[in-house]
Design brief:
single chain, about 675 residues, alpha/beta, Rossmann fold, 4 domains, six-stranded parallel beta sheet, about 35% helix, about 15% strand
């Protein structure tokens, strides 16, 4: 289907074709040839031309409006619509003529829709979901509370919604008169400052507060025709209408204005939701750009409001200190939360004025900075450490490939065993549910099946003993020797050469493979172990094979603190640790230096649940919204390409420059 639109703004709207179910959206067509429908925005003035075009050529006109669960951010801030309503009969906010929504609500719900509606409503209420979802809950005064919604005069839902002109004063007067002694709040929709003076004792609220939290926290909501009334019904709050919005006239609201006689049925809230949100509205998955069901989008929006793992506190301000411009481009996506301000500072001196008891100072890695610690302590702020997550990217971080996961830790950081971390606390103390363990097992199996690793570089190729060689294959994993995980997590074996020698002593008859760190192979980092020396200490130096191919043939892995040891555990391999990585000490590895704090024995799925489900923060590279590790595995599998690591200086700089410009452009 080819759908014509008549404004460039609508044509450029993200996900429009998917939401319309169109094969192609055509801007400003000269003729009706090969056009199947015409679309325009509601009853706006700029729909006159497309409506005339559709009428002249006998084409259906599709009236578009935002859906009830539109997006995480506000449209005024550029947040793309993830939900839309498409009406081929009328416009849902105009009671003067039938609409597709009105006809749906007049029918019996489809089989299963009421059960779906109940499940969706439970999620909506638990997460506080609404049209936009980036505002924080505003605390209200104790006692009886009433909310009155003031719509902008330009709102077509007000102009066409059967509300009397200038009726807001009458609505407010009724709310005050009928709720003697109640605190009255006025929500100015779309306005940061109100549209006129209010009586004494009435409090104005703007965009800074979450409307869905407000309607859940008050005793009654008064509206003319605003969709806020719909969300109030979903929250279980009584609603009085002074117009004829789509949800009025069905026996759910106290209606003070006439509603169409066509609305003859009495609905439940579940039936209203089933018709309006499950059948009428359309949704798109922001991570794939494809149509999805309401449940999928609600789950996505709930993740955005949860704003990261449960072990992270919820400060009002995040102050990131000492980050490069490249890291600043993606960092806000990992720190955003409803009502949270994300600020950047160059050093402790510039950060300190931004800190207070409701702020978190964000620093990269574990290396101590006394000035940062002093600044945070002086202002009563928390300190969070940040590092790459375990399912990171396709390509190296040193080549400026943005991460899909980060570890944010308010206690320590996972690779520093000298002090506790939030991950260590989870592994030591967390009680995991059967559902979490089942999810962890499925995720582990999916990672192995998809052959996913941290960086996902290298080619598929044969490694290990040649045909006829019956020796067991053992893999020793090289690391960047000045890496913080080695400096902090190793006791005696701290060099790749020492690791290789120890592995050979431990397995003298094995086919010993050595895989240098990919940052060393790419030339981005320096290794003190030359490859010709490594070749003398092992049977094969694996340069550019994919890690999954190495793990396929290896019976065991020897490592200092590399994440590859964790990836080997996922594949059921024996792992020997010469240092104290986060996955050691729980009874799953053979440890040269057991950690005295790690006394609990954990199963593999328990390790996966803590390390991959509960601890990291995941942000999808496409949507830049919070996501799940399962969705990241899907993305990494799709995005991975057989590509050779850049070896020339010019090639590396070209790749880095391209990645840098892409991230800076997306952040602008």
């Amino acid at each position: 289907m080819r759908v014509a639109v008549f404004t460039w703004g609508l044509w450029r709207a993200p996900h429009l074709a998917a939401l319309l179910g169109a094969d192609e959206v055509v801007p400003l067509p000269a003729t009706a040839a090969r056009i199947d429908a015409v679309a325009g925005w509601g009853r706006n003035e700029n729909t006159r031309r497309p409506r005339r075009f559709a009428e002249r050529h006998g084409l259906p006109f599709l009236a578009l409006e935002d859906g009830w669960f539109r997006s995480y951010g506000h449209p005024a801030d550029g947040a793309p619509a993830l939900s839309m309503v498409v009406d081929d009969l009328g416009v849902h906010y105009d009671p003067g003529e039938p609409s597709r929504l009105e006809r749906i609500l007049a029918e019996e719900p489809r089989d299963g829709d009421l059960e779906r509606a109940r499940a969706c409503l439970a999620r909506i209420r638990a997460a506080g979901l609404g049209r936009t979802n980036d505002a924080a809950r505003r605390p209200l005064d104790d006692g009886p509370r009433v909310l009155v919604v003031r719509q902008p005069e330009s709102d077509p839902a007000l102009r066409f919604g059967a509300a009397a002109p200038g009726a807001f004063d009458a609505v407010l007067e009724a709310a005050i008169r009928e709720n003697d002694g109640a605190r009255v709040y006025v929500l100015d929709e779309g306005l940061d400052a109100g549209g006129g003076a209010l009586p004494a004792g009435v409090t104005r609220i703007g965009r800074e507060a979450s409307p869905q939290a407000l309607v859940a926290d008050v005793d009654r909501v008064y509206v003319q025709s605003s969709s806020v009334g719909f969300h109030a019904l979903l929250a279980g709050t009584p609603v009085t209408t002074f117009g004829a919005p789509f949800y009025a006239g069905w026996g759910l609201t106290d209606d003070r204005a006439p509603t169409p006689r066509r609305r003859a049925r009495t609905l439940t809230v579940e039936a209203l939701f089933a018709g309006a949100a499950l059948r009428y509205a359309r949704y798109v998955d922001p991570e794939t750009g494809e149509r999805c069901e309401a449940e999928a989008l609600l789950a996505h929006l709930a993740l955005q409001r949860e704003a990261g793992p449960a072990h992270l506190p919820r400060p009002r301000r995040a102050v990131a200190v000492g980050f490069t411009s490249w890291k600043r481009s993606f960092l806000p996506s990992f720190l955003r939360a409803p009502g949270r301000e994300v600020r950047f500072a160059q050093d402790a001196r510039t950060a300190e004025p931004l800190l207070d008891q409701d702020a978190a100072l964000i620093a990269w890695g574990a290396r101590p900075d006394p000035a940062l610690t002093r600044a945070a302590e002086a202002r009563g702020a928390a300190v969070w450490r940040m590092e790459d997550g375990f399912l990171r990217s396709v390509g190296l971080g040193s080549d400026l490939n943005a991460p899909a996961s980060l570890a944010l830790d308010p206690v320590g950081i996972y690779y520093d065993p000298s002090r506790p971390s939030a991950l260590e606390a989870l592994l030591q103390d967390a009680e995991l549910t059967d559902a979490e363990l089942a999810r962890a097992r499925a995720l582990r199996e999916r990672i192995v099946e998809a052959r996913i690793s941290k960086y996902n570089v290298g080619f598929a190729r044969r490694v290990g003993p040649p045909p006829g060689d019956q020796r067991a294959a053992v893999l020793a994993i090289g690391q960047v020797e000045d890496d913080a995980s080695i400096q902090l997590g190793c006791v005696d074996v701290r060099r790749n050469e020492d690791l290789l020698r120890e592995a050979r002593i431990a397995r003298p008859d094995a086919f010993l493979m050595y895989k240098p760190h990919p940052d060393v192979v790419s030339g981005n980092r320096v290794d003190d172990l030359p490859l010709h020396v490594a070749a003398q200490l092992c049977d094969e130096v694996v340069i550019d094979a994919a890690l999954a191919d190495c793990l396929d043939v290896a019976e065991e892995v020897h490592t200092m603190t590399s994440l590859v040891g964790f990836e080997a555990l996922l594949r059921g391999k024996r792992v020997v640790c010469y240092g104290q990585p986060f996955y050691s000490g729980w009874g799953l590895t053979e440890d040269r230096h057991p950690h005295p704090r790690r006394t609990r024995r954990r199963g593999l799925d328990e390790l996966v649940a803590c390390a991959l489900l509960r601890y990291p923060t995941y942000v999808h590279p496409i949507s830049r919204g919070y996501t799940t590790p399962e969705r990241i595995v899907d993305h990494l599998e799709r995005a991975r390409r057989p590509e050779r690591l850049q070896r020339s200086w010019a090639g590396r700089q070209l790749a880095r420059g391209r990645n840098y410009l892409r991230e800076m452009w997306r952040a602008s």
